[in-house]
Amino acid sequence: xxxxxxxxxxxxxxxxxxxxxxxxxxxxxxxxxxxxxxxxxxxxxxxxxxxxxxxxxxxxxxxxxxxxxxxxxxxxxxxxxxxxxxxxxxxxxxxxxxxxxxxxxxxxxxxxxxxxxxxxxxxxxxxxxxxxxxxxxxxxxxxxxxxxxxxxxxxxxxxxxxxxxxxxxxxxxxxxxxxxxxxxxxxxxxxxxxxxxxxxxxxxxxxxxxxxxxxxxxxxxxxxxxxxxxxxxxx
Length: 235
Ligand SMILES: [Zn+2]
Fold this sequence. Notes:
It is a single chain. The chain is an all-alpha fold. It is built from seven helices and two strands. Among the domains are: 1-42, no CATH class; 162-235. It has helices at residues 53-79, 85-104, 110-132, 137-160, 167-193, 201-221, 223-232; strands at residues 2-3, 10-11. It has a two-stranded antiparallel sheet. It starts with a strand and ends with a helix. The structure holds zinc ion (ZN). Zinc ion binds at residues 4, 6-7, 9, 18, 20-21, 23. Residues 4, 6-7, 9, 18, 20-21, 23 line the site of zinc ion.
């Protein structure tokens, strides 16, 4: 058994030069002769590393159309008009926006993705409210909650994408956004149920979130402490 003098790779007896670094093999005990069969293929098989996301998205959309069509036709045949199938079709539309749409859109367009998801979720909730006959909860509760979720997601993405901001400051702001979302959630539910805002449980969540946010800001401003923590976490 012999090894390349340059890179140390193990050489088959038939090698004229190292298959890895191309250093010529000079072995006085085993002069080179053309082997009948090479120990490795002549050319490298190129494995495609880029997955065609758009093709996958087209295929997934096509698969989604099958249950949608089946549900719609069976509803039309059984009831002569569209009834329960609207729920399923709406849910499929939301599933398209949530799961398949990111593959159609470029990854660099998170705001468009969030906006479309907020819109599709709001439309679906409006459909459910309209179909169930009690539309009042949609404008008073469902729509503001959806908007709150969409806006907070957009602000969080905006903060996380700011390249100049230190990482822990971003985490700190996201904690504050989460606290604000919980306060907004409780306010909207209070307004819907009692007509007035009395924050209780969201305050219990707000205090630890605000404390965590402050801790992250402090750590970011103490380089030695930050370094120590990262070392202990093996990061
Ligand atoms: Zn070599």
